[in-house]
Amino acid sequence: MNLSASWIELNDALKNMRILWEETKSGWKDAVSQEFDERYWTPLDNQVVATLRAMDRLAPILARAQRECS
Description:
This protein is mostly helical.
């Protein structure tokens, strides 16, 4: 699997998780839901977005290295 395909897969998974979390939050409105959102969901979402950005920056570097090594 190449980096582009992995990026697409991770991005699609994040979109699906966001949809599912929004559906879950609509029926789960208590202090535990808020804590879960703050302690787990938001940091995870931020980390995945940061990973996608890093993959964007890494893709041209890997492509250049592949061209130079072939």
